[in-house]
Specification:
The chain has a single domain, classed as TIM Barrel, CATH 3.20.20.70. The protein contains seven helices and nine strands. A nine-stranded mixed sheet has the order 3-1-2-4-5-6-7-8-9. Helix 3 links the parallel strand 4 and strand 5. The longest helix has 14 residues. The chain is globular, with a radius of gyration of 17 Å. The model has no long low-confidence stretch (mean pLDDT about 95). Homodimer. Belongs to the radical SAM superfamily. 7-carboxy-7-deazaguanine synthase family. Pathway: Purine metabolism; 7-cyano-7-deazaguanine biosynthesis.
């Protein structure tokens, strides 16, 4: 039985589901939009400021039948956001094919560190220094969201911006615990470099998931 479950996970027909919930997208281009979030466990990128570290260990999140995930998602919204953890740790093909058959719009939030799988209407790339994105995801990203924890992150963001496509939207987002210090720096930076936009975690201000 264990081998069978492992095979299903490898095929993307089961995923280590951490949580799923209907809420308002709080970040980036689609902020303010009602969306159903599917948070998949498993991540070895290891950002020290990650606010969902409980997602890192996939073993504590039970493998869940993807058909059931799809059915749950389709009840609530036509916009589905797949996040993590790092969702591209797993094969996203079966999940997104099923969502698309239901007429859903599929969005992903990813560090881009692993092979891009799945059918996506919107790719939010949030690159991390520890594991750089693949070249494919740079070229396919619709939105680049760089987290600013300290001043050196502006140079990192510019390097990342040089690698994405010309139509990719560029966002700088303060790391939540540093927001009071970092927001003024981002405001000044965006005013001096207007190709960038400010992204805030508005869901945290609204006190929603």
């Amino acid at each position: 039985m264990e081998k069978s479950i492992n095979d299903l996970v490898a095929a993307g027909k089961m995923l280590p589901l951490m949580e799923e919930f209907y809420t308002i997208q709080g970040e980036g281009y689609h902020k303010g939009t009602a969306a159903y979030f599917i948070r998949v466990g498993g991540c070895d990128v290891g950002c020290h400021w990650c606010d969902v570290k409980e997602s890192w260990n996939a073993d504590v999140h039970p493998p869940t039948d993807v058909d059931k995930i799809i059915e749950s998602a389709s009840v609530f919204s036509d916009t589905i956001v797949v996040t993590g953890g790092e969702p591209l740790t797993w094969d996203m093909t079966y999940l997104t094919n099923g969502l698309k058959r239901k007429g859903m719009k599929t969005h992903i939030e990813t560090s881009g560190a692993y092979k891009l799988t799945g059918q996506w209407d919107w790719i939010c790339l949030s690159p991390k220094k520890m594991k750089p994105p693949t070249e494919e995801v740079y070229q396919k990203a619709d939105e680049l969201k760089c987290i600013v924890y300290n001043k050196s992150d502006f140079a990192f963001a510019e390097h990342q911006a040089s690698k994405v496509g010309k139509d990719c939207l560029l966002y700088l987002q303060p790391e939540w615990s540093k927001r009071d210090k970092i927001i003024p720096l981002i405001v000044d930076y965006v005013m001096e470099n207007p190709k960038w936009k400010v992204s805030l975690q508005t869901h945290k201000y609204l006190n929603i998931p």
